[in-house]
Design brief:
Elements: H1 6-15, H2 19-32, E1 39-43, H3 49-58, E2 63-68, H4 71-80, E3 87-91, E4 104-110, H5 119-129, E5 130-141, E6 147-148, H6 153-163, H7 173-182, E7 185-197, H8 205-217, H9 225-240, E8 246-257
Parallel strand pairs: 1-2, 1-4, 2-3, 4-5
Antiparallel strand pairs: 5-8, 6-8, 7-8
Helix pairs in contact: 1-8, 8-9
């Protein structure tokens, strides 16, 4: 799986500043409709961009608790939320939440559960720490939805198959509805956000993803370093010629605890 070390954390931090990532956070906040004073759990808070925005929405009468397994991510989140003392971040994993029952009004997990081995158990943990009628928003990607234009479709297939090793559940959204139901939630809403880039510019979601894929796939499923380099260079060349196309679906599941 992808290791969220210092180098990967820095790549993601840059990626999360892109307008596409900002748009995704705006959609998260829109779906949650937070109110001042609410208590929010951010599962897999990463570099803390969302935690800071959650904290701004609930205000100092509320609280935000962020958890992450990566020390690098936790350090970034601490620094990003330093001016919001009602935010705390701690090291923990999604399958064993170190919080009391019914402690939170809201929980959110963006691009987290696809990395978790026991998703059903992790969702039961969220249900436990939410109050009755508390709400949870889960965002994950179906990696079969990726469309990346290429003059070498066979190489693209091999590279993307190798990249599937970066997580545990590359097709998790197909199962999230039933998993939420079995964990004690009622699904309220399901939406798709399309990440669509027609250029490989600094503002796009795919520029950061290209770097992540390129760094990860060499030596996996028969993809050599030379092939990984050629794959990345082809995409950059297509962009220079005005032939670039990228699309990826990310799915939002909003549910309430029964």
């Amino acid at each position: 799986m992808l290791e969220f070390d210092d180098e990967t954390a820095r790549r993601l931090e840059v990626m999360y500043t892109s307008p596409d990532a900002v748009r995704r956070r705006n959609e998260v906040l829109l779906h949650l409709a937070l109110r001042p004073g609410e208590r929010v759990l951010d599962v897999g808070c990463g570099p803390g961009f969302l935690a800071a925005e959650l904290a701004a929405a609930v205000g100092p009468t509320g609280l935000v608790r962020g958890i992450d397994r990566s020390d690098s991510m936790i350090g970034m989140a601490h620094r990003r939320c330093a001016a919001q003392p009602w935010v705390t971040v701690q090291k923990s994993d999604a399958e064993n939440l170190a919080f009391a029952d019914a402690q939170f009004d809201v929980a959110v997990a963006v691009q987290v559960y696809e990395y978790v081995a026991d998703v059903a158990g992790a969702l039961r943990q969220v249900s436990r720490v939410l109050r009755p009628r508390g709400r949870v928003l889960v965002v994950d990607t179906d990696w079969d939805s990726i469309v990346w234009s290429s003059g070498d479709p066979q190489r693209m297939t091999r590279v993307l198959a190798a990249f599937d090793e970066h997580l545990t559940h590359p097709h998790l959204p197909r199962e999230l509805g039933p998993l939420l139901s079995r964990a004690g939630f009622r699904l309220e809403r399901c939406d798709a956000l399309v990440q669509l880039n027609l250029t490989l510019g600094a503002n796009g979601f795919s520029v950061g993803l290209l770097d992540l894929v390129h760094a990860f796939v060499a030596g996996r499923q028969g993809v050599t370093r030379a092939e990984a380099d050629a794959w990345a260079e082809e995409l950059r060349a297509r962009d220079r010629r005005g032939e670039y196309f990228f699309s990826l679906n990310q799915y939002y599941f909003l549910a309430s605890k029964l």
